[in-house]
Amino acid sequence: xxxxxxxxxxxxxxxxxxxxxxxxxxxxxxxxxxxxxxxxxxxxxxxxxx
Length: 50
What we know:
InterPro entries: Trimer_LpxA-like_sf (IPR011004). Keywords: Membrane, Transmembrane, Transmembrane helix. The protein is mainly alpha-helical. It has a domain at 4-34. Helix content is 52%, strand content 0%. The protein starts with a helix and ends in a 16-residue tail after the last helix.
């Protein structure tokens, strides 16, 4: 099942590839579904979990 960190990684990839609107939308989806805020500008390494 997809969790918040998977959504974060998708948003982060989009942000790093200069796609402007979608990362903000995904961050909003993370907040609505999981009730947490994981900014796509944050650098979270592998092995992290929530």
